Amino acid sequence: MFQTYLQEKKELIIAYLYEFFKLQKPLAINRWGKDAIERLEQFIQNGKMIRGALVFLGYAISGKKEHPDLITIASAMELFQAGLLIHDDIMDHDDLRRGKPSMHSQYEQMLQKHACESPKDSAISFALCVGDLAYFYAYELLASIKDHNIANITSQSLSRVAQAQMQDVYFGSSNKLPTKEDILALYHYKTGDYSITLPMTLGAEIGEASKETMRHINLFGKNLGVALQLVDDRLNLSGNPSVSGKPVGSDITSEKKTLYYFLLSQTQEGKDILQSKNIDRTKAFCQNSGIDDQITKQVQFHTREAEEAIFHIP
């Protein structure tokens, strides 16, 4: 049922952004501007557009008829998501996104064909600019919304994402092991707060939802987001790249401080396996030592908490 709902909203967002990008292309000042717009448009179309759909869902709880600002806000959410993913792939050194070359990988391939010097470094610069462009376009859309609180709520949430991302980078480069609570808090601000709570809150804001409803939307998003990130960690370790569209094992090789990393670090054997950065050994150990079961229980806990919050949302 949600897949059908998601597909319907995705088609609406694609059509809206098609018209938006069509207006932007003539405004490009050089070939790179037009190229960036075309790549950005394709990048967004390859996504699931869950955040955009959740804007509509957050509004739907009001029981009111469709609001003309919803599609604008939903499209802005997808532009923000694109910018965050493009920059995230650079920081995580991921060459794949949604089963296709990530933005910096696309530019590296193009610059190599042009026989440019330092194609890898230049490609990162190109991709950073495309991510920035996505943010600027998103705020251009939000500027057209009469309710200025929409932009304020969005800015506050995205500022938390940026700070959480800095924390994530620090965890990855530091020899200090974060606590389990630190990791789960990071998941909340990097995933739950932005991916679920924010879009639903924006829709609910347009629908003039009560403070109590907003509070339970926050609880729902926080817990479902943590569960989602834990599942994402599992896919990174043992998923099928052809299905997930993501490289396998990059969290382990880059020493990203996930909950898997934390649990592996609790025993000497686990530490040795982390040191080896051997993905097959890591997968086998997680399965045999019960770490996979601990992750599953954590996912189930947060899923139950999210389900409990649903009962308090109209």
Short précis:
With 314 residues, this protein is mainly alpha-helical.
SSE blueprint and pairings:
Blueprint: H1 2-24, H2 31-45, H3 50-60, H4 69-92, E1 96-97, E2 100-101, H5 103-113, H6 119-142, H7 149-173, H8 180-206, H9 211-238, H10 241-244, H11 250-253, H12 259-264, H13 268-276, H14 279-289, H15 291-310
Antiparallel strand pairs: 1-2
Report on the structure:
This protein has 314 residues and is an all-alpha fold. Helices cover 77% and strands 1% of the residues. A two-stranded antiparallel ribbon has the order 1-2. Helix 3 runs antiparallel to helix 4. The longest helix has 28 residues. The mean pLDDT is 94.
Question: What keyword list fits this structure?
Answer:
314 residues, 2 strands, mainly alpha, two-stranded antiparallel sheet
Strand proportion: under 5%
The oligomeric state of the chains shown is: single chain
Distance between the termini: 19 Å
Query: Quick one: overall form?
Result: globular
Strand order of the largest sheet: 1-2
The main pleated sheet reads as: 2 strands, antiparallel
Proportion in helices = over 70%
The structure class reads: mainly alpha
Total DSSP E strands: 2
- N-to-C order of helices and strands: HHHHEEHHHHHHHHHHH
Work out the radius of gyration: 20 Å
Number of helices: 15
Average pLDDT for all residues: 94
Low-pLDDT parts are none
